[in-house]
Amino acid sequence: MLQVSRKRALISGITGQDGAYLAEFLLAKGYEVHGIKRRASSFNTERIDHLYQDPHTPDRRLVLHYGDLTDSTNLIRIVQQVRPDEIYNLGAQSHVQVSFETPEYTANADALGTLRLLEAIRILGLEGGTRFYQASTSELYGLVAETPQTERTPFHPRSPYGVAKLYAYWIAVNYREAYGLYACNGILFNHESPVRGETFVTRKITRGLARIHLGLQDCLYLGNLDARRDWGHARDYVEAQWLMLQQPQAEDYVIATGEQHSVREFVNCAARELGMALEWVGSGIGEQAIVAHAPAGSATKAGQRIVAIDPRYHRPAEVDTLLGNPSKAREKLDWIARTSFDDLVREMMASDLSLTRRDALIEQSGFRVAQHHE
Length: 374
Ligand code: NDP
Ligand code: GDR
Prior knowledge:
- This protein has 374 residues and is of the alpha/beta class.
- The chain has two domains: 8-188, NAD(P)-binding Rossmann-like Domain (Rossmann fold, 3-Layer(aba) Sandwich), CATH 3.40.50.720; 201-228 and 262-318 and 341-365, UDP-galactose 4-epimerase, domain 1 (Alpha-Beta Complex), CATH 3.90.25.10.
- It has helices at 17-28, 72-82, 96-101, 103-123, 160-179, 201-213, 234-244, 263-273, 327-333, 341-364; strands spanning 8-12, 32-37, 62-66, 86-89, 131-137, 183-188, 191-192, 220-222, 228-229, 232-233, 253-255, 261-262, 277-281, 288-293, 305-309.
- The strands form four sheets. The chain has a seven-stranded parallel sheet, with helices on both faces.
- A hairpin with a 6-residue loop joins strand 13 (277-281) and strand 14 (288-293).
- The longest helix has 24 residues, at 341-364.
- The N and C termini lie far apart (57 Å).
- The relative contact order is 0.12.
- The structure holds NADPH dihydro-nicotinamide-adenine-dinucleotide phosphate (NDP) and guanosine-5'-diphosphate-rhamnose (GDR).
- GO terms for molecular function: GDP-mannose 4,6-dehydratase activity; NADP+ binding.
- InterPro entries: GDP_Man_deHydtase, NAD(P)-bd_dom, NAD(P)-bd_dom_sf.
- It comes from Rhodanobacter denitrificans.
- Keywords: Lyase, NADP.
């Protein structure tokens, strides 16, 4: 019988939000999936535990390799071992605010890490066979020159993260032009999910409100409530990443919903999911959200302050507004964002409510759960 060899993908950042959704997506498509995970002092594979296959499983299709984007020889060795058809470079220090505190490390992992992977492909002579996806970002636009943003909108990044990703964007373009490498930039706008990192604003809100609703926390502290983002669902966005690598020609694409909401609107929508109505009072750093209507069974009371501003969460330079135009992706990839804003918030809120119920039970039993308030 003719043996059809399956495609092999290598994912850096497989333990992150997108890595987990992409690994699941590619496994369902029949791929053999290899992922790079960092050595950590405790388990860090929670997001992909449901996909894990014991190393003794015959013919397993998910293989993890220890590695780091700051370590060239390690990356060359992994690419040499795997000889992937597709590399998805999702690994990064991806938190914008943290990049102001760790700018050099962010540049090393996010900018030079991309160069190291591209060089590994070249050193091993795989330019002809290995396709490369670079996780570029709407943070490249920063101080936006036009709205909505397209593939042709000029870049003006506003953080060490954005500047590092600007290098990564251009080095991927350069390797495409200089060496004929099939390299694509997906310029992805914010995308979220129930497994979004807990310190990004959306997850911080759904987790915080769930904890307040169940009486585990009194108040949620946020920064700029007026920031506006084009928020989609990670599950939809990883499909676009894959589609970009299946085209006859490598190109760059904006991936977005084309719809924008403020952080304050996200809070209101998440509160509504709990049956709670909020009233916003005060202004500037004195602005607060007060419970106007508390649902039955909630630990909150009408009149209680549940959201306040902490200037610690204001950034040295802010990206005030982002809105993407995904027309090119719709026309060339036949891709659209399927999940609406309301459905995204609903799914995240339901998931955090159920996780928080579990935490409440653990605490009632006399055990402590991790706090992670940042
Ligand atoms: P996460 O922060 O959830 O995941 C980042 C991943 O990168 C984790 O697996 C992390 O490992 C890994 N990582 C961090 N540093 C290194 C390093 N030095 N070497 C190897 N791996 C490393 O990010 P997302 O999944 O949300 O995003 C995926 C990519 O897409 C990132 O590059 C991000 O910058 C970019 N992006 C994200 C958008 C979004 O809205 N989510 C929008 C546009 C771009 P560990 O688990 O050990 O920390
Ligand atoms: P962002 O996402 O910076 O857009 O980067 P984040 O959720 O961190 O911030 C979005 C906006 O919300 C404002 N904000 C707060 N942000 C956080 N984290 N915590 C707060 O308390 C808070 N209060 C208000 C921020 O100032 C900002 O304006 C994400 C990351 O996934 C990047 O890796 C990715 O490239 C971009 O999205 C697209």
